[in-house]
Amino acid sequence: MAKQTVSSRIVDIFNAEGVRAIFAIGDVNYMGIQDAAEKSGIKLIWPHHEQTGGFMADAMTRMTGVPHIVMAAPGPGVANLVPAAICASKENIPVIFFCAQRPRKYAQAVRRSQFQYTDQPRFFEPAVKYAGVIEFPEQADEVMREAFRQALTGKPGPVFVELSSDKQFLEVDFGPLTPPEKYRVMHLPAAAEHVEQAADMLANADSPLLIAGTGVHTSRNHEALERLARTLKCPVIPTWGGRGVIPETDEQMLIYATPAANEAVAAADVILAVGTAIGENINYGRLHHYEIGNVDRKWISIERDASAIGVNRSIDLPLIGDLRDVVPQLTAALEKRDLKPHPKLKAWREQMAAARRGLLESAPETKPIHPGRLMVEARKAIPDEAVIVRDGGNTTLWELTYFEQRSHDYLWTSKFGHLGTGLPYAIGAKLAVGD
Prior knowledge:
- This protein is of the alpha/beta class.
- It is 39% helix and 13% strand.
């Protein structure tokens, strides 16, 4: 095999994983990777600040289902990435934080006041699933494979990789490139007997309910979830982070914590939770309105991370696997059964729609403009299929109340509420849909 540089090999791995863009200010410390990426067709996006580059990579990852790359130069550049890594960690977004470091001879030297040098991995270790250092050129393959493996295994999340700048142009005989399906699990269906058991529970339920969360977005599993909802013919309640998994105009959708949704929860005898940890924002599935009505209701959870089962609330039947595999499995099993439309769904939907119409019509007409009226008028001007990006701050509370989400794609930091993500998320989303 012909030798190739460490930089070009890393870019080959990026391409094999489906990476479409690298977010990084131009810098000599990773120039080799940027050059190889541009020649291979990967887009190079130069943010004005490394933190915004991290948020752009976050959005691109959410919109494509593929981990994307943000890079930073040693020292201050890498330090600027830490907030984006913390945010990606809280949101379970598998961003690859690829950071350059000064040559190892400087790192190992006994010196004081070294220019733009700090021990970088230790700042990321609390936030990432894996922190790897390419210490020797021959390690490029194994460290990068481990980075993608860890980012996408179990509960997804960010990872950190460091490369000394003096290694980027070294040439190595790496051998044939290993494809992703040979170094990480690409498919993870649930046990067939558990799927059949879940289908029986749902088919025999008097009042089934589907609660869908952020995992539907990050797995890009919208079409499969919609097919499941159509098969179940029951109410669908998105979590805060799941907003948009099914548009708010859909006839099966109820907004969480509205009176109609609360009635659906109280009446539910079997709840199917898809792509959600059943967290604080939905009262852990056991407090407040969950304490009313069928308090002994059964819970089925589709979850990738087995360690998450039973933490926030007890689960009667866990379906452990990747949503992209398990949701179609369950739908296929349900399609073999005779499911009737939920008898109260139409009434609940009409109740919620009437209440919302009244709310929108009552938005005050004031000068300066009332925040609720601003959202009503913005909704009129924005195409239904638009990607909606929400930043942090109290303005978003008005958006949540007065802005009807009509498309699947809705980006915000539902678990962390990080202020300043809005514009970089929008840029990352634009890049994802621009092709």
